[in-house]
Design brief:
single chain; 171 residues; alpha+beta; 5-stranded mixed sheet; elongated
Length: 171
């Protein structure tokens, strides 16, 4: 709670977050053609399920890689053939782009509008926890100039703040 989100070292479970790339030992059939895997420098954490790498992907984005056997090299990425397979493939593509010096695409799971709404929900919720009124929250989130009490009662921003707070509580 004391760190800003980009500085926090939260590890996600790959069963919950399909953007976590799971790496394992190369199967024997591919072993002759596989090159050693050299991951970029980042934060490394040991956990019960293996070695977690948190890689800086720029623009306050990060990639999380779980290496199930830390002593194994070369590595392959594992993609279960379930409904999250496409999200896992996108995460692998982002990792490959970083490994090979290409532009890292954004995560496609959230559109720009959904990311903006999530950001506003968190801002509103944080403001409410800090004791701000709904009008004060609207002034910050929507860059609303100070309005009179009567104008505030019918302002669309008032209802937007109420919806943001309601949805933020559901998270």
């Amino acid at each position: 709670p004391n760190l800003p989100a980009p500085k926090a070292c939260a590890l996600w479970d790959p069963r919950t977050d399909p953007s976590v790339v799971v790496l394992q030992k190369v199967p024997e059939v591919l072993n002759r053609t596989a090159e050693p895997t050299i991951l970029p420098e980042g934060i490394t954490r040991h956990a019960d399920d293996g070695l977690h790498h948190l890689l800086d992907a720029g623009e306050q984005r990060r990639l999380q890689v779980l290496q199930s056997d830390p002593d194994t090299n070369p590595l392959v990425a594992i993609v279960p053939l379930d409904q999250n397979g496409f999200a896992r493939l996108d995460a692998i593509y982002r990792l490959l782009a970083q490994l090979h010096g290409r532009a890292i695409p954004t995560d496609k799971r959230l559109t720009r509008q959904k990311r903006l709404r999530a950001r506003r929900m968190l801002q509103a919720f944080d403001g409410r926890l800090a004791g701000a009124s709904q009008r004060e929250i609207a002034e910050v989130v929507f860059r609303l100039s100070r309005v009179s009490r009567d104008e505030w009662q019918s302002a669309p921003e008032r209802f937007a703040v109420m919806a943001l707070l309601r949805d933020a509580r559901k998270l």
